[in-house]
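Ticket #4471: structure output looks truncated?

Reporter: J.K.
Steps to reproduce: submitted the chain below (255 residues) through the standard prediction queue, then opened the result file.
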Amino acid sequence: MTELLLLLAGLLGGALNTLAGGGSFIVFPALLAVGVPPVLANASNTFAALPGYISGAIGLWKQMVAQKHLFLPYGIVSVVFGYLGAELLLRVSDAQFSLVVPWLMLFAVVLFAFGGQINALVAARAGTSRGAKALGAVLLYVLLAGVSVYGGFFNAGLGVLLLAFLTLAGIANIHAANGLKLYMSSLIALVAVIRFAIAGSIDWYHGTIALLGVTTGAYVAARLSTRIPTGIIRTLVIVYGVGLTVYFFWQTYAA
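Returned output as attached by the reporter:
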């Protein structure tokens, strides 16, 4: 039953990531439900999500190659600060991490629910101030550093934060922005997974089952994506995410 639960969670999570995002809302709680300790569950969730990031970045390579001058600087910041986020996770106990999980889930659900509005607001401001010139390159890199730390520490909601950053940075082409988002997500997740592996903080058995489900679900959903209304899926994910967040708050602070 444990293996079946993780496989189904992975299938659903991978499909959601392809269709609307929010797969971590399925996979991370499933890992917790089968008894994986919180820190290991979070690290294993990042491990399960990694192949999807890499395959997505490869798929959008032609769209983002025009921005190849950003690969090195953005890549360096993503790797360095993604590592710091992973290091931060390894320095908290399961009990300490459990206390912040409800807040991280709440933050991720808000990002997921209002990501479109957040990016539209950022785009409007960037359109008048020309993004990087107004904020300054230093402030943009500070923002990317903060987003990378968050991604290394807790993966859910990372895509929305990276898209907001890229909008501020003046990347107007949505396909190029999505490609760069997946490129940086891949690097952040990769360096985090390497650090987690060195520390022995990945549950390889349960994480691999989830990974197989995520990869399969993402592929199947990609083939069926034109037949499934994304708006309905997003609404269901938001309702589920809110319920899950309320449950985590109740379990942590009221139970």
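Triage note (M.O.): checked the attachment and the full token line is present. The chain has a mean pLDDT of 87.
Status: closed, working as intended.
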